[in-house]
């Protein structure tokens, strides 16, 4: 399984719009460090059976797919329905045209329902052969437990994201937890034994809706993953500061980061 971090920034990206010269608000991030440029959080999984999975379709998805040479996937998993994770959905029309079929959209029922209220036309039945719009098919899953996606077993688990919830995802020894500030017992049990965990860490100080560095370190002492990779980072999280100050076992992601992991056992047909 190949994992590609398409974007690792918060809802406003880094830099944020504005600044004295209009070229961005960088906060503590050094604008001369390329790895401080962060688009909105998204992930891509290339599975051993040839299937690919996109996690979330944020507003930067077109640029992210082009930058990483991605031209095909048949599954999307949605962590939640905030705009920075869904508003690029129209862009998958280009993928529809390449694969010549609708794309399956997975997520809990309430999330898919909210996405449908904003993009109702995308979920309408497709009439072959042309794609004049993006076309996806809703595949709702339970908020907690095992489900099949792209021929593999995944586990979805609930997370608290401020006033709303979000979904974490585990596949084999790998897990992804964007947009989370609290993990309940179900989530912690699901994450037991995880080897590589990509997790939200928006800033160094406490935040009401996102994990911060001390919170991530608390989870590290509970779960003991071999490798923690920080994502959904804001302008407080300077790359060089993190390189110099993060403890062993915790590292920052960057846009375009790739690594490979052992493929989980596929679901038998």
TrEMBL record:
Q: Which InterPro entries match?
A: Metallo-B-lactamas, RibonucZ/Hydroxyglut_hydro
Extract the GO molecular function terms from the UniProt entry. Answer: hydrolase activity
Q: Which residues form a coiled coil?
A: none
Task: Please provide the record's keywords in A-Z order.
Answer: Hydrolase
Task: Give residue ranges for domain Metallo-beta-lactamase.
Answer: 39-232
Q: What domain of life?
A: Bacteria
Q: Which CDD domains match?
A: metallo-hydrolase-like_MBL-fold (cd16279)
The record's listing under SMART domains reads: Lactamase_B
| PANTHER family per UniProt | HYDROLASE C777.06C-RELATED, HYDROLASE C777.06C-RELATED-RELATED
Protein's UniProt name: Hydrolase
Q: Which organism is it from?
A: Acetobacter indonesiensis
């Amino acid at each position: 399984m190949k994992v590609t971090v398409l974007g690792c920034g918060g809802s406003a990206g880094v830099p944020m719009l504005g600044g004295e010269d209009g070229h961005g608000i960088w906060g503590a991030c050094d604008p001369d460090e390329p790895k401080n440029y962060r688009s909105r959080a998204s992930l891509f999984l290339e599975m051993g059976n040839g299937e690919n999975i996109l996690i979330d379709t944020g507003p930067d998805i077109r640029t992210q797919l082009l930058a990483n040479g991605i031209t095909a996937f048949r599954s999307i998993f949605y962590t939640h329905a905030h705009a920075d994770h869904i508003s690029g959905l129209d862009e998958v029309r280009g993928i529809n045209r390449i694969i010549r079929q609708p794309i399956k959209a997975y997520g809990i029922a309430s999330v898919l329902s909210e996405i449908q209220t904003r993009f109702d036309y995308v979920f309408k039945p497709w009439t072959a052969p042309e794609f004049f719009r993006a076309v996806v098919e809703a595949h709702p899953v339970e908020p907690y437990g095992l489900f099949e996606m792209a021929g593999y077993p995944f586990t979805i688990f609930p997370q608290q994201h401020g006033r709303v919830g979000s979904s974490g995802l585990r596949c084999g020894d790998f897990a992804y937890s964007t947009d989370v500030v609290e993990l309940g017992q179900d989530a912690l049990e699901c994450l037991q034994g995880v080897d590589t965990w990509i997790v939200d860490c928006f800033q160094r100080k406490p935040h009401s809706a996102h994990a911060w560095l001390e919170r991530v370190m608390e989870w590290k002492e509970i779960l003991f993953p071999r490798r923690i990779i920080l994502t959904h980072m804001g302008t407080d999280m300077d790359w060089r500061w993190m390189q110099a100050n993060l403890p062993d076992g915790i590292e920052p992601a960057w846009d375009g980061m790739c690594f490979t992991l052992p493929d989980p056992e596929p679901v038998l047909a």
